[in-house]
Design a protein that fits this description.
The structure is a single chain. The two termini are 20 Å apart. It contains 4 helices and no strands. The chain has 84 residues and is mainly alpha-helical. Helices cover 75% and strands 0% of the residues.
Length: 84
């Protein structure tokens, strides 16, 4: 999933979005994947709900995360250091 926290967040949200889009298109998704996705979606939604001015996780994934990933590594490390 990635060595850095930001990479792991990007991978997890990407997988959740892929699952969401697959369901929306009517594709059959295995029960195991669906169950795992439901567990993670609940955790992700709960995490986002507890943030100040909480965004929707999908909006964050589509709009904010790409910007954060484009910052240089030094800026990412400082941001993570001061916002645990």
């Amino acid at each position: 999933m990635g060595k850095k926290q930001a990479d792991r967040v990007k991978t997890l949200l990407g997988r959740l979005d892929s699952m969401r889009r697959s369901k929306g298109r009517g594709y059959n998704v295995s029960e195991e994947i669906r169950h795992t996705s439901n567990i993670f979606v609940g955790c992700v939604e709960n995490t986002f709900a507890n943030l100040p001015n909480p965004p929707e996780w999908l909006s964050f994934y589509n709009n904010d995360l790409p910007l954060l990933m484009d910052f240089c590594e030094e800026v990412q490390e400082i941001s993570i250091q001061y916002h645990p």
